[in-house]
Amino acid sequence: MKKHIRALIAAPLISTVLVAGALVPQAAHADGTLAEYKWSSASGFVEYGLGGFWVESRTDNSKLVFQTDGNRVLYNDSGRALWHSQTHGRGASKISLQSDGNVVIYRADNVPLWASGVSRSVPSGTWDLVLLGTASAPTINERNLLTGGKDYWRIP
C-alpha cells in the first residue's frame, strides 16, 4: 500500500514563472482526501510540460495525470480512465495552474484548449487541488483555502 504522494516538479517552461506549488505529503485523511497539491496566487503561476504534472494517491493507484499526449486524465486504482480533458492530439504543450485558480491546458502558441473555468471574481489566495473519494471512484476538486475550502470545480 502506498503511503506517499508523488509529483514530478519539472523545471518551469518560462524563466519568469515562479515556483508556487507545495506538495503536502500526509497520511490519508478521514474526509477521504487521498492526495493534494497546493499553489498560491502570491507566488504567481506554475506551468508544467507534457507528462510533467500528476497527483497520485497516497494509499492506492488512483491519480490525475497530464500525459505526454497532452491529455489530462483521472484514473481509478485499477487504471481505468474515469475522465479526460479531450486534449490529446490537439497540440497541447503545457498545463498552467494560474494565480486566479484557473487550471488551463495550452498549445505551444498559448491558445487554450481546456480550462477549469474558475471565475476571475474568486478571491486570490492559496489553491488546493485535492484527490478525494475512494480508490475505485476518485474525484478531483479545486478549493480556495481563503473561502473555507469551498469547491470551485470538480471532475468527474
From TrEMBL:
Gene3D superfamilies: Bulb-type lectin domain (2.90.10.10). The keyword Signal applies. InterPro entries: Bulb-type_lectin_dom, Bulb-type_lectin_dom_sf. Residues 1-118 form the Bulb-type lectin domain. Keywords: Signal. Residues 1-30 form the signal peptide. This is Bulb-type lectin domain-containing protein. It comes from Subtercola boreus. The lineage of its organism: Bacteria, Bacillati, Actinomycetota, Actinomycetes, Micrococcales.
